[in-house]
Every structure is written in structure tokens, then in C-alpha cells.
Design brief:
By secondary structure, the chain is an alpha+beta fold. The protein has five helices and seven strands. The chain has helices at 20-34, 56-71, 92-101, 133-145, 159-185; strands at 10-14, 40-43, 85-87, 107-112, 115-121, 126-131, 153-155. Strands 3-2-4-5-6-1-7 form a seven-stranded antiparallel beta sheet. A hairpin with a 2-residue loop joins strand 4 and strand 5. Helix 1 runs antiparallel to helix 4 (133-145). The longest helix is centred in the last third of the chain and has 27 residues, at 159-185. The chain starts with 9 loop residues before the first strand and ends with a helix.
Length: 186
């Protein structure tokens, strides 16, 4: 499969109808699989819900990271203190913050160079990932070990792809109609 950026791989989104617990697990396993490929990651320390007790310590820690970045000059004092907080995924403690908060945030993203490989939003209900064939196999294996079926992730189809498919279907129907009509005249 060819991704929208022309590389070989797969793009997936979360399937509808999953339990909130499974959604959290899918986010976390996707990040674990992608970790070695991530160069940069950013997180917004905002959620549409109240941060759960289980992740509140991570929420407080990520806000501290943002404050430390302001203090060392790597982050603007004028910016929103909770938006676009840089996460160093090579640092185990910071990666744990991403694992804890990404399933609940209004926005998190991860990049490999100039290619986005992970996007989460809408307080965890939205997830998009771009994985290599090897990463796909590893992720599906990890999810299976947790009892989550492979249907938890569905292939991402762009709106343009969807319109093209509808147009192609319409054209085939029209061609068949014209061919049938011309056979009736012969």
C-alpha cells in the first residue's frame, strides 16, 4: 500500500464502537510501536473531559515541562502554556507522559522527519497512524495479545479517494446503462 506521502505503508484510524478502555490501549500500543521511528512529538495539555486520577500526575508533569522550556528559552513566554508541548520520546519519563495523556488530549502528534506518523485528538476519540508493514504486523500482534481485534483499526480513506470511488462507480453504472441501451437498439 502507498501512503498519501508516497511511501510504502498503511494509514489507519480508530474504528467506531470501541470501548473507552480499548481506545486507550490502541493509542498506547500504536505509540509504543512507532516510538523508534518518532523524531518529534508534541502534546496539548487540554482535554474535553476532566483528566482522570490515573493520569493527573502526568498532566501536572507535562505542564512542568512546558514551564521548564519557557525558563530555558526554548519556548515562548507569550504562547499558550498548555499547547504544543514538546515531548522527547527518547526520554523514558517523557515518553510515559505521552502514553498517559495522548489518549485523552484534544491534540497530540508525532513526526518522523517531515512525515506525520501519529495524530490523536478529540479527547482520544480520534486517532490516525501511518505505519510500515512491519509496524502494522507488530501493532496487530500487540493488540491481539490484549484481546483487541484487528478491526479496531480501519484503513484511512481520504475524502478525495472516497469521491473518486463514487465517481468511478457512477461511471461504471452509466457505461453499463449506455451499453444496455445500445444493445437494445441493435
Amino acid at each position: 500500500m502507498i501512503n498519501r506521502d508516497g511511501t510504502s505503508g498503511y494509514e489507519f484510524v480508530l474504528a467506531n464502537g470501541m470501548s473507552p478502555e480499548d481506545v486507550v490501549l490502541v493509542h498506547r500500543e500504536a505509540l509504543r510501536v512507532l516510538r523508534s521511528a518518532i523524531d518529534t512529538a508534541h502534546l496539548d495539555a487540554y482535554s474535553g473531559d476532566v483528566w482522570s486520577r490515573e493520569v493527573r500526575h502526568s498532566y501536572e508533569r507535562v505542564l512542568s515541562l512546558a514551564q521548564e522550556a519557557v525558563a530555558d528559552g526554548s519556548r515562548s513566554r507569550r504562547g499558550d502554556p498548555g499547547m504544543g508541548i514538546d515531548i522527547d520520546v527518547r526520554d523514558d519519563a517523557q515518553f510515559e507522559l505521552l502514553l498517559d495523556l495522548a489518549p485523552y488530549t484534544i491534540h497530540a502528534e508525532a513526526w518522523r522527519g517531515d512525515q506525520q506518523v501519529y495524530s490523536a485528538g478529540d479527547t482520544g476519540t480520534s486517532l490516525w497512524i501511518s505505519v510500515t508493514p512491519e509496524q502494522r504486523a507488530e501493532l496487530l500482534s500487540r493488540l491481539d495479545a490484549l484481546g483487541i481485534p484487528p478491526t479496531a483499526l480501519t484503513p484511512w480513506v481520504s475524502e478525495a479517494d472516497s469521491r473518486f470511488r463514487r465517481l468511478r462507480q457512477w461511471a461504471a453504472t452509466e457505461l453499463e446503462r449506455v451499453m444496455s441501451a445500445s444493445r437494445g437498439r441493435a
